């Protein structure tokens, strides 16, 4: 398998999960300006919209959406429990988290990361909405170490990859969206707990993130 990624982008999430599971996956870096891959391909041939992550499977099939890639990878090693079993209430809860992170957090960052394109109106509406979503996440983490409770899942890896786009001294920020997390103590504790995971540290180091 090959994982096409951009350093510090949302593709950090499946990169982390690869290390958590000990999977043999080849990393292929994508230049975000030219949309060419380090092995010489036009990335638009793999991803029509130029988005990462993309997971190219050994049988020639390609997965292009982060939540689907995360679940696919975790299901390769079910004993490690990065996703609950299919057909269970817990699996639905995981998918609920992935859907929330994808639509409310990931999408919510876009106007802040591309403030010039979004314009003042877009930023003024996006920032308080994203702050409200993160305040809610902070409250959920008040009595649990991970999003799903005591068990670490792929949802944590996804949220970690996005949260580092914000601003706080404890973040490994690369994009620096105009949203600050210093007042969210439970989120900070969760983030620092995530940073101590060997798989997270390996992925950050491989992508050149501090």
Automatic annotation (TrEMBL):
Signal peptide: none
GST C-terminal domain mapped to chain residues: 87-210
A Pfam family reported for this protein in Swiss-Prot or TrEMBL: GST_C
CDD domains membership: GST_C_Beta, GST_N_Beta
E.C. number(s) listed in UniProt: 2.5.1.18
Source organism superkingdom: Bacteria
SUPFAM superfamilies associated with the record: GST C-terminal domain-like (SSF47616), Thioredoxin-like (SSF52833)
Molecular function GO terms recorded: glutathione transferase activity
InterPro entries tied to this protein: Glutathione-S-Trfase_C-like (IPR010987), Glutathione-S-Trfase_C_sf (IPR036282), Glutathione_S-Trfase (IPR040079), Glutathione_S-Trfase_N (IPR004045), GST_C (IPR004046), Thioredoxin-like_sf (IPR036249)
Keywords: Transferase
Domain called GST N-terminal: residue spans: 1-81
PANTHER family hit by this protein: GLUTATHIONE S-TRANSFERASE GSTA, GLUTATHIONE S-TRANSFERASE-RELATED
Protein name: Glutathione transferase GstA
């Amino acid at each position: 398998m090959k994982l096409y990624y951009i350093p510090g982008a949302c593709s950090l999430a499946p990169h982390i999960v690869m290390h958590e599971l000990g999977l043999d996956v080849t990393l292929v870096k994508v230049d975000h300006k030219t949309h060419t891959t380090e092995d010489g391909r036009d990335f638009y041939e793999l991803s029509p919209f130029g988005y990462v992550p993309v997971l190219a499977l050994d049988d020639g099939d390609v997965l292009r959406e982060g939540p689907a890639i995360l679940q696919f990878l975790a299901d390769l090693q079910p004993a490690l429990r990065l996703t609950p079993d299919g057909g269970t209430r817990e699996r639905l809860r995981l998918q609920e988290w992935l859907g929330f992170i994808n639509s409310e957090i990931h999408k919510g960052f876009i106007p802040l990361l591309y403030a010039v394109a979004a314009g003042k109106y877009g930023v003024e509406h996006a920032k308080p909405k994203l702050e409200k979503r993160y305040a809610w996440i902070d409250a959920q983490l008040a009595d649990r170490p991970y999003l799903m409770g005591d068990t670490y899942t792929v949802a944590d890896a996804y949220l970690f990859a996005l949260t580092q786009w914000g601003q706080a001294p404890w973040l490994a920020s690369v994009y620096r969206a105009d949203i600050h997390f210093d007042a969210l103590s439970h989120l900070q504790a969760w983030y620092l707990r995530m940073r101590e995971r060997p798989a997270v540290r390996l992925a950050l180091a491989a992508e050149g993130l501090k």
